[in-house]
Design brief:
2 domains; Aminopeptidase; OB fold (Dihydrolipoamide Acetyltransferase, E2P); 311 residues; four-stranded antiparallel β-sheet; 30% strand; alpha/beta
Length: 311
């Protein structure tokens, strides 16, 4: 038996980087020919990259080439310099790649990455699946629902789904302007539950690729979880910086808690005085993002993302 991973052909596209690096390769893999074409990306934000790359590998390793009906293209590390630094953005120019599309061939490093993805990776695609996650400091538990890609959103068994912001400069937003079906997945992150979230994403990728005809329906994993739609998200930020101590753990990401539930505390690191308590703001509060570990935190930092469930 031959897996998609065994059959994947890889090409490297060198991008000018720093004087020390010379150039950095962006690696694009492709398997199959003809039929519907789907692109899976991960690592648009570098600190979110490893979880998406792992899920892509699990998919490629677990699916046999005989199941392929179209063409699959993958980019596990779309922003390699940012991933190397474990940062959201590449340190060379600090631009957010997901706010830079369609890029600029003669621009700075991040603008050139966006141009490469827009002109090369998106060529001929019908569907784009963009994997994000909480990264090294938080855990996420939702999927963006975008017009024309609703069926893709439903494939991922995300705890929550939310309407995507209208942002044409993101990868998925730009791809939507081209008339393609897209989905943005925001699941997983560093928490001790990495294997659970990677498996959940892997199964979602399999379902989505079968839904759009890139893979056959045979052997597609059945859905296991309910996805609850939520309204617009609310970001909870501490007024003061200090030592953050969570009151809800990573096992509660993707759950709904009663209003007033204590989510976390912020303490003065000098005299250990309690500075602030963060609580669930809605009668029924869906937890879309949380910080699972004790850490230092600055005033105004994103600490939780919450929303109200919709009937």
């Amino acid at each position: 038996m031959t897996s998609l991973l065994d059959s994947m052909l890889w090409t490297e596209h060198a991008l000018p980087a720093s004087s020390a690096h010379g150039s950095v390769p962006v690696k694009i893999g492709e398997v199959g020919s003809g039929g519907p074409v789907a692109l899976i990306t991960a690592g648009i934000h570098g600190d979110e990259g490893p979880w998406g790359a792992w899920a892509i590998r699990q998919l490629l390793q677990s699916v046999e080439t005989s199941a392929l009906q179209g063409t699959l293209r993958v980019i596990p590390a779309a922003n390699p310099l940012a991933m190397t630094a474990d940062l959201r953005n590449a340190p060379l120019d600090q631009l957010d790649l997901n706010r830079t599309f369609p890029g600029n061939e003669k621009g700075s490093y991040t603008e050139r990455v966006a141009h490469l993805l827009a002109q090369t990776a998106l060529e001929g695609v019908d569907t784009v699946i963009d994997l994000h996650g909480g990264g090294s400091w938080c855990v996420n538990s939702f999927v963006f629902r975008m017009q024309g890609g609703e069926m893709l959103s439903d494939c991922f068994d995300a705890p929550f789904s939310m309407k995507a912001p209208d942002r044409a400069v993101s990868l998925t937003g730009y791809t939507r302007t081209l008339g393609k079906a897209v989905v943005g997945v925001e699941m997983g992150g560093k928490s001790g539950y990495e294997r659970h979230w990677a498996e959940r994403i892997t199964k979602g990728l399999h379902r989505a690729l079968a839904k759009v005809g890139v893979l056959s329906e045979a052997g597609t994993p059945a859905r296991e979880y309910e996805t609850i739609p939520v309204g617009g998200s609310t970001v909870l930020r501490p007024t003061n910086g200090g030592v953050f101590v969570p009151a809800v753990g990573p096992d509660q990401i993707g759950t709904i808690v009663p209003g007033g539930t204590i989510l976390g505390h912020v303490y003065d690191p000098g005299c250990v005085e309690l500075l602030e308590t963060l609580t669930a703001p809605f009668d029924q509060t869906a937890i879309l993002l949380l910080r699972p570990f004790i850490t230092q935190i600055e005033g105004g930092a994103m600490t939780y993302v919450v929303a109200e469930p919709q009937a």
